[in-house]
Amino acid sequence: MLNPKLPKKFKNVLITGASQGIGQALAESFAKRGANLLLVSRSEGRLKGVAASLEKKYPGIKAQIFVQDLSLAEAATNLKVHCQKVGFAVDTLVNNAGYGVWGRFSKLTLKEQLDCLQVNVTTLVQLTYEFLPLLKANRPEGGKASVLNVSSMTAYQAIPTFAIYAASKSFVLSFSRALHHELKPEGVMVTALVPGATESGFISRAGIDHTAEKAKKVTMSAESVAESGVKALERGQIEVIPGGLNILMAGVTRLLSKNILEKTAQSIYRK
User: For the whole model, what pTM was predicted?
Assistant: First the structure.
């Protein structure tokens, strides 16, 4: 059932990377607020399962899917065309899709690193740019349209052997904070969600299973991370770090020298 105590600020929400993990949890957080959803990823089977489950649990909402590989240069345009074709009036854009590739920069292929940048950075920028006119046109009367960009705690430091991913998430955080100030007067609220270790399957997909044991103490559920992000978006926050320990760790990164932080990170991510 929908939660009648939650204000309905979101009507039509597009979520990338919605087939599992934080993206799936974000879909549920918006669904329980009464939002209709357009769920995007390249995993058709998973998307169908998530959409069916949410429609059953929250009968008042409609969950559509769109299968798209976001590492393709035309992904953002394809999504915009699809929304216009089916009449999905997006007022909230959630750029959640992202992945990491672990290994030494010189040993990984250039293609897999550029594909990572395409998903984490370029497609995110393209989607934000392409959908801004639609967000402004579709924003609730007297309210604001919304953009939620998912960054990472890795944004706060360089990480040897995880260089591309950390750098990409640093970009997402900086980009989101800048847009927050630019777009707020234009009726669009931008928030950066900055999660730490999360129960989402990310560690295995990124090839960093060797860090799993070390991450256990600070790992949060995808549901709690997602709810923190949506609540921050409702409040109009510029940035939110879920979890007290993560907030403390982010503060520490501002106090210690970059050299010490990078050597520590290297020891954590090294096999």
Answer: 0.89
